[in-house]
Amino acid sequence: MDLLTALVDKGLRRELPSREEALAVLATSDDDLLDVVAAAGRVRRQWFGHRVKLNYLVNLKSGLCPEDCSYCSQRLGSQAGILKYTWLKPEEAAAAASAGVAGGAKRVCLVASGRGPTDRDVDRVSQTIAAIKDQNEDVEVCACLGLLSGGQADRLRAAGADAYNHNLNTSEGTYGSITTTHTYADRVDTVQQAQAAGLSACSGLIAGMGESDEDLVDVVFGLRELDPDSVPVNFLIPFEGTPLAEQWNLTPQRCLRILAMVRFVCPDVEVRLAGGREVHLRTMQPLALHLANSIFLGDYLTSEGQAGQADLDMIADAGFEVEGADTVTLPEHRSAGVCGTHEAGCGSGGCGEGDAGGCHDTAAEPAVPAARTDLVAVRRRGAGTDLPPNA
Ligand code: SF4
What we know:
alpha/beta; TIM Barrel; 10-stranded parallel sheet; 14 helices; 37% helix; 2 iron, 2 sulfur cluster binding; transferase
């Protein structure tokens, strides 16, 4: 297929595909799916070999958020029956983090609900980072605390944070229909503040919120422009009690096409298979490892993932290996400096122009994918509970 040959060539050279090519990946038919995965898998292996980086989420503060992000079970007015608790103590967070590290995670992601941290919250998280690094000196710590204000990124960096996560989530054009309490530009600004402070930026998207293919390509091209070191790809978990509860739009095949498109657009960036993989990819999860080089181990913020051991078994059975703490995740041209810098961009090429190929089949998606509410389990273990975490 001309399209895939062109995209592999560009991915191996870190050149940006054209929007038409990215759209064409999303429009490929199910008959071509394995060819698409194999092609994007070549790009993944060029930059990341067979390694899979494991990341572990610690929800420091759950629920009761004043923001109204429609996809979020912690939003203002959410009726989802999630765990709600205020800040974990540093030693509680460190214990949860240690469980993830013992399970193989090399990065711990410290997440707190809310619009953004107060300076006191930054102090609190700084103490938590110190407690985690006391117990696990080499672990990477990523903070995800919402919108940052002046000087907070620098303070987190000084406290030992390696990275900061703030997702763009959806395209600028659709942002206002998903969230009204802050803007796409606010999110871009926070990612840029993190980068300016020397934090490795992590920023990604959520697919399955009713967006068009054009919206998906827009947000992924927006991410490439922003040049984060890692790009989490979430698939919407339509929580009952949230405005998007009825949005069951994804099939496993669609998820794989989205991951392949992200890999082609951001060939040398850590593409992380994130929330919703068990719910939407289901038994097709191992194929996604040919596209993403990073996953979350165990549970998510407010929902349960599959057992941590099942993640490890899946990685081994699919012929991949867990990335060790002594291995640098990013390719050498991106990883000079601390935990990844961004001098080269998601790729270093300009805007590519190319033949979009002849493999469109927009009838490939089932009209209404089945709602798999049976696969959505609210998290009832780990951080904020008396039960051991899943790692
Ligand atoms: S700001 Fe964060 S925690 Fe609050 S509703 Fe939005 S995504 Fe959820």
